[in-house]
């Protein structure tokens, strides 16, 4: 049974930081690419960052230089460090995977999702 659970969201002021975490069962972060995605009300879900099975990362232009994706294989946990947050970063954030190896930020390719954690920046 596959389950992903995100945590770490909250309400912060612009310029502050948050660290999201994604853990779960039925998969191992070392064996699949994983991604962070977000969706604001009335907007399409968008890719934020991904990390491949090989550890190679990719970021959307809107977060490049501010967000860092990483994973801890021993803890089976995916992270997203978000610095210099902006109001436009406000959204529900989701982690996902699909069993493939190489990084992609196209949300349509992923088929296992968590329930999301809300990030609000004011």
- Backbone CA Rg: 13 Å
Q: Please provide the count of β strands.
A: 11
Fraction of residues in helix? under 10%
Q: Report how far apart the termini are.
A: 37 Å
The low-pLDDT segments are none
Q: Give the overall shape.
A: globular
Element order, helices and strands? Answer: EEEEEEEEEEE
**Overall pLDDT confidence:** 96
Describe the structure using short key phrases.
4-stranded antiparallel sheet, about 45% strand, globular, 11 strands, 7-stranded mixed sheet, about 120 residues
Please write out the topology:
Layout: E1 3-7, E2 10-12, E3 18-25, E4 34-39, E5 46-51, E6 57-59, E7 67-72, E8 77-82, E9 91-97, E10 112-113, E11 117-121
Parallel strand pairs: 2-11
Antiparallel strand pairs: 1-3, 3-8, 4-5, 4-9, 5-6, 7-8, 9-10, 9-11
Please describe what this structure looks like.
This protein has 122 residues and is an all-beta fold. Helix content is 0%, strand content 47%. It is built from no helices and eleven strands. Strands 2, 4, 5, 6, 9, 10 and 11 form a seven-stranded mixed sheet that branches. Strand 7 and strand 8 form a beta hairpin. The protein starts with a strand and ends with a strand. The mean pLDDT is 96.
